[in-house]
Amino acid sequence: MHRIHRTCLRLGRLTAVAAIAVLALGIAAADDRYFVYISNEYSADISVIDSATDEVIRTIEISGRPGEVRPRGLNVSPDGRFIYVSVSDFQPTVETNDDVIAVIDVSTNEVVQRIRAGGNPERVASTPDGTEVWAALEAIAMGGGYSVETGEEIVTFRVGIEAEGVDVSPDGRWVYISAETTHTVTVFDRHAMETVKHVLVGNRPREVRFGNDGRYAYVSAEVGGNVSVIDVENDHEVIATIDLGLDSRPVEIAVDPVRDRIYVVGGGTSAVYVIDTNELELIATIREGMGRRPWGIAITPDGSKIYTADGLSDSSTVIDPETLTVIGQIQTGRGSHSAAIGVIPDDE
Amino acid sequence: MTSDAVCALRRLILAFAALAVAGAAFAQFSEEPFLERPVLMSHGYGLEIMASRYFFIEALDVLPHEDAVEQAEKLLDRDLRRFEGTLIQRDPELAASFRAALEELVDAAEDGEAVAHLVPGVRTLHDQVVDVLIGDFQDRPSYLAGVSADVLIMNDGVAEAYEDAADDELWEYINGWGALQRIKEIWAQLEPLATPQQVADYQEMIDFIEEVVYPRVSPPEGGIRGDPEEAESATQRMIGILEVVVDVDLAPGRDMGRLTDSFLATTEAACEAYDAGNELVAVEGIYAVRDPYRKHIRRFLELVAPPLYERLGELTDALISDDPPADAAAACWEMHELLSEARTLY
User: Fold this and answer.
1) A223 close contact with B: CB closer than 8 A
2) In A85, A161, B172, B341, which residue has its Cα 20 to 30 A from A321's Cα atom?
3) How far apart are the first and last CA of chain A?
4) What order of strands is seen across the sheet that includes strand A45-50?
């Protein structure tokens, strides 16, 4: 029996709220067609997949120096028009100009901006209003916030060692940054511009994601083999821990925009774990047909398809969230790391 | 259908449902060697790191740089201290012979002489020491997996040695190369327990590390240019595979509370040894706590309780140093008290 440690009872249903949120954001896709971005750490490029055909239509070079500079975490602007890419070199002890947040314009699939973010940014998240991006700076145990318009640094603040996961709450107030070696999530109040607390989560946390309504946040723990659930409104306390098995090695999380679910990739088991966010329990595990060592995962804004980034098979696995089965495999670049979905403009 | 029959059917259905759920149970491992036998595992770690060093000593023969000699000196300065007290208690003659053989080896290395020919003799004594300290446990898969995990990710092991080498301690590299050779040896003993896929996955990681991280015994002349953490991801994956192959929990930091409880018990025994005047045995307990504390707990304390982190660091470093505190017992008990305080934080 999978074990769930709860200190709260059931959560409210989120489906209606999520649907309203999607409409409110005004995200529009041209005929339910999206561009899926897969960062490839070792080939130092981004594979762009057309979700209508599930074919790679373009490869965006990030540095031209594979093995020296690498793209890793991806995130998408609230309107889906820009992809943010955490880019860093392999020299954490030396600060170089290679540490940036690259911005890809979905309409052209070109890199249109590079925001300097020293300290080996590993993952990045944007604010709901799209004016700022926030990064987990792996090498220097810091979090950083940057203006999208000017590229200037707004603030940096201390977090745990080997910072990795980062997300901004839907109301824009909280920045959560996880740290692998310290096993913590640092809570930063963006309005007061101060750190509120450090929350102990599962062992070796990799990613943090706020739920659609921002009431709860989910933190995957690779060595802990679990997902911690943080109650954002209750002093950022961990209220539940969802076990996925000590061998699961969970990494990235995707929050379903239309269903009350999150999807967590298991790098150790090459699986995707499907968690019901109302019941806080595992409802399905997808294994058959999966690529090897999935690390990244993203779901289209309409909730119709899930894409993973599979680091050892250099691929992206396509999953139908209705049937929870694998429906395709797409060859991407070397060391596929993260996934994000861009919205193609209506005139595309 | 009668009501009794309906009830019986319901019970039967529930019984099958329970079996089905149990069948879907997640992996939770049946042994926890680092929590069950912390001092023995610490002895094992020391012995395995020594075994790793023999590889580079043999391969290099004449150690080409003073920093390489320093890695060999660790056999005496560091590794032996993890278990010498207990060895002396159990077999003083063997302890004396082993120390003498190591001293001969290290002295020759310091004098720039060829030393490879001395390694077989040291290995013979080493194996006898393993018999005395580890006994039958040495063949147990959980022990072998546990020491593999240490050699993969702890100090002077596969991952850490490379990181240190990249960070201006270039000759730490040879420790990592040696550690990889020892990992391959141990895997040969565990491989029969693995499925073909697990064998392929583990070998894939070994091949990667061998090709990319440690292609030769000596560090690259121009230094380490690539990712210092190149080996880390692979070693973590290897540990994950070992856990499933052997059904053993190799990450004691998963439950920081239980780990600290284990620290408290080990530290208490060490402090009592100090009280009894047995410093050699006492320091073994400090080592057994210090290494996993540094790996799994201290970074959390550094973030949330910096004064506690600093003082624990001072005490543990001092107790294992060549110049320990005059009142080592008092320092040990203070360490115990601070660990108790840390325990309240999680």
Assistant:
1) yes
2) A85
3) 49
4) A55-61, A45-50, A34-40, A336-343
Q: How far is CA A237 from CA A7, A175, A222, B253, in A?
A: 10, 15, 20, 21
- Is there a contact between A248 and B26 if contact means CB atoms under 8 Å apart? yes
Under 8 Å between Cβ of A298 and A255:
no
CB contact under 8 A, A90 and B302: no
* Cβ-defined contacts of B100-108 (< 8 Å, 24+): B101/B125, B102/B75, B102/B76, B103/B76, B105/B57, B105/B72, B105/B75, B106/B72, B106/B73, B106/B75, B106/B76
d(CA B19, CA B23): 6
CA distances in angstroms from A333 to A47, A62, A106, A250, listed in the order given? 7, 12, 19, 22
| 8-state DSSP, A253 | E
Tell me how far apart the alpha carbons of residues B296 and B255 are, in angstroms, rounded to a whole number. Answer: 10
- DSSP lists the bridge partners of residue A263 as A254, A274
Q: Which residue has the tokens 């600290």?
A: B260
Nearest CA in chain A to B246: A247
Distance set, CA B191 to CA A246, B147, B188, B315 (Å): 21, 15, 5, 41
Number of Cβ pairs < 8 A linking chain A and chain B? 81
CA distance A332 to B6: 56
Rounded Cα gap, residues B324 and B336, in angstroms: 17
CB contact under 8 A, B22 and A1: yes
Interface touch B21/A1, C-beta < 8 Å: yes
Q: How far apart are CA A321 and CA A308, in angstroms?
A: 12
Q: Report in angstroms the alpha-carbon separations of B43 from A88, A284, B46, B227, B289.
A: 40, 43, 5, 31, 12
Give the length of chain A. 348
| Cα–Cα distance for residue pair A147/A157, rounded to 1 Å | 16
CB contact under 8 A, B254 and A246: yes
Q: Is B316 helix (H, G, I), strand (E, B) or coil?
A: helix
Judged by DSSP in three states, A70 sits in strand
* Residue at token pair 């990592």: B176
Rounded CA separation B86/B283 (Å): 10
Asked if B20 reaches chain A (Cβ–Cβ under 8 Å), the answer is: no
CA distance A64 to B271: 58
Query: Mutate which of A247, A270, A334 to disrupt the B interface (most B C-beta within 10 Å)?
Result: A247
Residue B334 contacts A, CB cutoff 8 Å: no
Residues of B in contact with A177 (CB under 8 A): none
The distance from CA B231 to its chain's CA centroid, rounded to whole angstroms, is: 16
Distance CA B225, CA B78 (A): 29
Chain A touched by B22 (CB under 8 Å):
yes
Q: Does A305 touch chain B (CB under 8 A)?
A: no
Which residue is associated with the tokens 């013979």? B124
- B226 to A225: CB separation less than 8 angstroms, yes or no: no
Per-residue pLDDT of chain A (348 residues; tens, 9 = 90+): 334 344 443 434 433 344 434 433 444 454 578 999 999 999 999 999 999 999 999 999 998 888 889 999 999 999 999 999 999 987 777 777 889 999 999 999 999 999 999 899 999 999 999 999 999 999 999 999 999 999 999 999 999 999 999 999 999 999 999 999 999 999 999 999 999 999 999 999 999 999 999 999 999 999 999 999 999 999 999 999 999 999 899 999 999 999 999 999 998 889 999 999 999 999 999 999 999 999 999 999 999 999 999 999 999 999 999 999 999 999 999 999 999 999 987 765
Is the confidence metric ipTM above 0.95 for this complex?
A: no
Q: How far apart are CA B142 and CA B110, in angstroms?
A: 37
DSSP A163-198: EEEEEE-TTS-EEEEEETTTTEEEEEETTTTEEEEE
